[in-house]
């Protein structure tokens, strides 16, 4: 078999066989197929797409390129959640202790951010002492003991995905639905969970800018899950504006803890408890959505979710004082207000540009090896649909440089104040 023939077949819209998919995945991992040929194939896949059968086969080949975690020692149905990423999306941080407090084991393997989309691990590392790296044995033991862990990749999970993703990043093929879906599902299946809820974001701050694109990706993910026997539900949620009010690593930890104290913003609470409710259904702790939602809400009200979070911090070496004293996290030197230039209703607040603004302050990475400034970010005082008065602060910008004219200009250019607006829906569709 020749790699050029595989490229030619896909370039012309053909369906790759199981053997052909195995050939290029194995060859790329062992070094017998060069990156330039894989790059050509990725671009062919980007333009010609893949069938459901191809996507499932690609997922399984990437999954089987490394080891698969065995979580059978953890009692109960293990349920995880994955998000396709967005601005202010800190959901995993309060969600894991909420579902764990309801008796649903959540062994969560998370990632880092690149560009304007923040990573769960980066946010948690804003807490002094938090250890994201664990051995497989430590990871399993912690979930057995307290019901949850949020860690980085443990073991040699899906090495083919790591190599292919690095090429996708530099060949502008990141937003390919077959490549996104096989990447997500290969890692999640390899992580050993029994069931998965996927938060597929749509809007300016998401990979899938339109609802139609998000629906296609959500169906692809659920179809792959079904194809390999994994229980899987996708929830399509809004990312036209940031989720919650705070964007930036330390700030998002503050808001996550606020939610666990019953004080978080309503949009963050709605998304978190909606995703958690479907996790509870898949974990057989509830028979319907309303029952699950009420059960999870109770874990916030009675403080048990906050105590699960405290237990996770202790188990992973973090300073538990952060729950009551946010100032132990890095703090920005300057707090700069962005006043409204006119009165009216906030009609647009582009999630993408808010994320870019936070990255420009130092809160995100443009390259993998960039150092993060955990203290910087943006605290939104207004969301789409809110009334504003001329001169009123729309947001507070946390910065360690006093001159942020570039950031202010970007933000003003991508928000609008008018007279009429329909605030976006938070949840568009559930795909089971």
From TrEMBL:
GO terms for molecular function: 1,4-alpha-oligoglucan phosphorylase activity; thymidine phosphorylase activity. Its cofactor is K(+). It catalyses: uridine + phosphate = alpha-D-ribose 1-phosphate + uracil; thymidine + phosphate = 2-deoxy-alpha-D-ribose 1-phosphate + thymine; 2'-deoxyuridine + phosphate = 2-deoxy-alpha-D-ribose 1-phosphate + uracil. Its EC number is 2.4.2.2. Residues 345-418 form the Pyrimidine nucleoside phosphorylase C-terminal domain. GO terms for cellular component: cytosol. Belongs to the thymidine/pyrimidine-nucleoside phosphorylase family. PROSITE patterns: THYMID_PHOSPHORYLASE. Keywords: Glycosyltransferase, Transferase. Catalyzes phosphorolysis of the pyrimidine nucleosides uridine, thymidine and 2'-deoxyuridine with the formation of the corresponding pyrimidine base and ribose-1-phosphate. InterPro entries: Glycosyl_Trfase_fam3, Glycosyl_Trfase_fam3_N_dom, Glycosyl_Trfase_fam3_N_dom_sf, Nuc_phospho_transferase, PYNP-like_C_sf, PYNP_C, Pyrmidine_PPas_bac/euk, Pyrmidine_PPase_CS. SUPFAM superfamilies: Nucleoside phosphorylase/phosphoribosyltransferase catalytic domain, Nucleoside phosphorylase/phosphoribosyltransferase N-terminal domain, Pyrimidine nucleoside phosphorylase C-terminal domain. One of its GO terms (biological process) is pyrimidine nucleoside metabolic process. Gene3D superfamilies: Nucleoside phosphorylase/phosphoribosyltransferase catalytic domain (3.40.1030.10), Pyrimidine nucleoside phosphorylase-like, C-terminal domain (3.90.1170.30), Transferase, Pyrimidine Nucleoside Phosphorylase, Chain C (1.20.970.10). Homodimer. Signal peptide: none annotated. This is Pyrimidine-nucleoside phosphorylase.
């Amino acid at each position: 078999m020749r790699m050029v023939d595989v490229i030619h077949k896909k370039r012309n819209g053909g369906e790759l066989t199981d053997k052909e998919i195995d050939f290029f995945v194995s060859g790329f991992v062992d070094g017998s197929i060069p990156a330039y040929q894989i790059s050509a194939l990725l671009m062919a896949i980007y333009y010609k797409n893949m069938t459901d059968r191809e996507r499932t086969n690609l997922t399984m080949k990437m999954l089987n390129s490394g080891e698969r975690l065995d979580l059978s020692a953890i009692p109960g149905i293990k349920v995880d959640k994955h998000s396709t990423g967005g601005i202010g999306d800190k959901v995993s941080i309060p969600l894991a202790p909420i579902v764990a407090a309801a008796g649903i084991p959540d062994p969560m393997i998370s990632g880092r951010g690149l560009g304007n989309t923040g990573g769960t691990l980066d946010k948690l590392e804003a807490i002094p002492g938090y250890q994201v790296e664990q051995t497989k044995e430590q990871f399993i033991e912690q979930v057995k003991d307290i019901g949850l862990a949020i860690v980085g990749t443990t073991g040699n999970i899906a090495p083919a995905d790591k190599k292919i993703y690095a090429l996708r990043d530099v060949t502008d093929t990141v937003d390919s639905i077959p490549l996104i879906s096989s990447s997500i599902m290969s890692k999640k299946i390899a992580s050993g969970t029994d069931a998965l809820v996927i938060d597929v974001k749509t809007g300016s701050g998401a990979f899938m800018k339109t609802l139609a694109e998000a629906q296609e990706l959500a169906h692809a993910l659920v179809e792959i899950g079904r194809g390999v026997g994994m229980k899987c539900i996708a929830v399509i949620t809004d990312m036209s504006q940031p989720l919650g009010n705070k964007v930036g690593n330390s700030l998002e930890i503050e808001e996550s803890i606020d939610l666990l104290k019953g004080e978080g913003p309503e949009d963050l609470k709605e998304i978190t408890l909606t995703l958690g409710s479907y996790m509870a259904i898949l974990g057989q702790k509830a028979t319907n959505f309303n029952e699950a939602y009420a059960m999870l809400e109770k874990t916030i009200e009675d403080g048990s979710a906050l105590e699960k979070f405290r237990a996770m911090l202790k188990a992973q070496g973090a300073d538990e004082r952060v729950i009551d004293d946010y100032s132990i996290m890095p703090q920005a030197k300057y707090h700069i207000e962005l006043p409204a230039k006119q009165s009216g209703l906030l009609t647009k607040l582009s999630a993408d540009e808010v994320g870019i603004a936070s990255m420009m302050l130092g809160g995100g990475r443009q390259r993998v090896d960039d150092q993060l400034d955990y203290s910087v970010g943006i605290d939104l005082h207004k969301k789409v649909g809110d009334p504003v008065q001329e001169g009123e602060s729309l947001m507070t910008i946390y910065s360690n440089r006093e001159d942020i004219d570039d950031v202010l200009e970007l933000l003003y250019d991508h928000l609008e104040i008018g007279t009429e607006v329909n605030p976006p829906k938070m949840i568009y569709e559930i795909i089971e």
